[in-house]
Design brief:
- The protein is mainly α.
- The chain has a domain of 61 residues: Helix Hairpins (Orthogonal Bundle), CATH 1.10.287.310.
- Helices cover 68% and strands 0% of the residues.
- Helix 2 packs antiparallel against helix 3.
- 7% of the residues are buried.
Length: 106
Amino acid sequence: MKVDELRVLEADELGMRLRTARRELYELRFKHAVGQLENSSQISKVRHDIARIMTVLRERDFGIGPAVAEDAVQQQAVAVAEPEPEGPEEEAPKPKRGRSKKEESE
């Protein structure tokens, strides 16, 4: 399961997938405790799937999503397209490193 696949789903569908993934994790843990689980890496895969689903749900709660990412890309494109002002720019003097002669004499 990929995050892009999850982002296009509705909230109720995500809720259903979260419930089924949690149920699957419960069953895998039970099989592992009994000794019937052959591939224990399945547990970590299901845990990662649960984390992905929860991440997408939280992104929606905060309003973070594809629409926000598109706006950021458009703003970057506008910033790149704007010409920089011409003319000499003076750099601020760099601070001196180390001790000054006054501090060394003390």
